[in-house]
Amino acid sequence: MVVGWFCRFHHLLRYLPAHGSVICIAVSFTTILEQFFLGQPAHSVIVEVIAMGGWVVIAWLLIYAGLHLLADYNSVKYKSTWEWVLLAIDIPQMNVQTPKAVEQLFAHIFSIWEPPSIGIVYRRGYRREHYSFEIVSIEGYIQFLIRVRKKFRDVVEAAVYAQYPQAEITEVEDYVESIPTKYPNETHNIWAAEYLLTQPSAFPIRMYKDFEHNISKDTVLKDPMGTLLESFTRIGPGEQVWFQLIVEPIAEKLWKGDAIKEIKKMIGEKTPAKKNILDSLIDNPLTKELVHGTNEMLGQITGSEGGFASASAEKEKFDAPNQILYLTPGQKGLVEKMEEKISKVGFSSKIRLVYSGKKDVYKPSRAVNSFTGSMNQFNDPFSNTILPKYMTSTQYMFADARKDFRRNVIMRGYKSRDINIGKNPYVLNTEELATLWHFPMSHVATPLLQKAKLKTAEPPSGLPVENLPL
Predict the structure, then answer these.
(1) CA 263 to CA 299: how far, in whole Å?
(2) What pTM does this model have?
(3) Which end of the chain is more exposed for a tag (fewer CB within 10 A), N or C?
């Protein structure tokens, strides 16, 4: 039967060029297709399509789907072997380090990034490594925490001690099991939210260096962490506030390309158009030589410079590659900030906040409003802002059901430290991360913040001692 259809099509190609037009070809070809698909049973059509090469497409689809399933299976299996530790970080009481030290910490821990090769993806399994930087307040007691794979504990400790030699790092039990996971619940209630960027990741937030104030000869940092931690001290017995910043090292090609496109859009850079036949003719060396000779001849006749070359030069003079010279000072400053952002490594990031309390003391306004207000410090109206876009406060149809659904989603994502649960993550560079999460300086008054005691130690007993005369 397949041979019969090929004979009909071959006869059509031989007959139509001599006896019909293009329209006749289209009509006749449509007729053949209708007869092929509608003039015989469905199973016959499937058999003939497979026989004519359709099996290649089916085989490709099966291989493609199989490889994806294999990669997903190995990825889940690989992640199930991960072991985690939760580290409590106590900084020195007299901390004079600015957030620049924590920026170096984030740059240090980027070293665990691993490129996904074919062997890793389809044999071992691939998952991007991630950290969870957290600040928790349990009944007003504040603690800085870092959750990391046990395999990379030394990386985190080395990064912390490199910037804070007097810090104390202690492995602690995970606090997230102290409250229920599913809601509604008989004993507890929670308010939870994910804080998202309102603009693409290419636009930076307000950095910590923008909080510096020059007073006479000294530069003072008005530490934004003081306002954030103040919101954590407002709670009492039976209440907890959890702040989570999940970060995943991400390859430059996955985010810097989009940022460069946004920069080009800002400056109005023109993309080169595809050349047509006329452009190729103009760029031909013989054409250029002809134009040059004609230009010289016209110059000798008229006694002045001009002709085609001068007109082309004037066109090139005013046809600028971009409009950066016409940007306002604010727009130029924004472009500089965007270029500065892509000059540093980036992390795929997500911010979550959870306020929980027993039902008899539950009052989210004690901490939530203050925390959201403290996050407004990092907003730049001309660039980017951070707002609670996915939260448990709903006021539309099925409000209660949607509220409970979001509570369970955010709580599950928080406890599992999964960046993919909830809304899509966004990219923050090391400077932005250090702005949002850093150890407060010593002038920040936080009475219930755990700080390290001054370390004192005696020298080892085995050191050689030189005999000195009395």
Answers:
(1) 44
(2) 0.77
(3) C
